[in-house]
Design goal:
The chain is an alpha+beta fold and 256 residues long. It is built from four helices and eleven strands, in the order αββββββαβββαββα. The longest helix is centred in the N-terminal third of the chain and has 21 residues. The structure holds calcium ion (CA) (4 copies).
Length: 256
Amino acid sequence: MALNRTAALAALAAIAVVAPLASAEIIFDFESLVHGEIVTNQFAPMLTISAINPNRGFNIAAAFDTSLMGTADPDLEGPPWAGGNLALSPTETQLGRALIIAENDLDANFDGILDDPDDEGSRPAGQLIFDFSQTIDTFGFDVIDIEGSVQEFSRLEFFFDGTSVATVGFDQFTSVASSFFDATIVFGNNTANRVTPITAAALVAAGFVDAEGGFDRVIIHAGGSSAYDNITIPAPSGVLALAGGWLMLTGRRRRA
Ligand SMILES: [Ca+2]
Ligand SMILES: [Ca+2]
Ligand SMILES: [Ca+2]
Ligand SMILES: [Ca+2]
């Protein structure tokens, strides 16, 4: 009996510790990548990244170091940024490496590092595809250099098990009529904005009832030249599963 009580208390303690972790976020800031690095499975299995570029004969997602000067696209260079809700943040304005849909595939030495990375400037630019190993219910991100979301028709598309369950246009972030309106977001050339994580519940509230169970793929349909950073999702349930294992172990002991 004493052993059982100890085990049960340990399990409760584990839950108490785990609870705040379970609601924590994981942020993919891409700082482990170098300028021009082709991005595929560096963050697998949790996150796999790919791209579709309808304008080229290749589909490459790549890292772009926004902190550099003299790159192929000055619009992606900052800080300073020309505007947006990250422009004045003392702590968040430095974005470093971000993701682009590559406009060229120049890699003369075949090292998987694009020699002069540039983001696709055609409209639309293409898709950045984020596949998650677990179903998630929250997705946040930073966006650089989307100029005039209305013209560029950028949008987020959420999928569950291969089926599209919701779409949110970037124009909704700057439309007071939208439930996704954020007064701090200002789009424009060389801007940097953080989009507050979008929840499955918010998608359902906006009429996308099929998003109720969450999503396991998010596609950013990039209307034009742009870069993306700080992909933010809920912390995986692995730690919670460990606590569950504790409880199961306790249960077995109790029955034994
Ligand atoms: Ca970054
Ligand atoms: Ca190279
Ligand atoms: Ca460009
Ligand atoms: Ca631009």
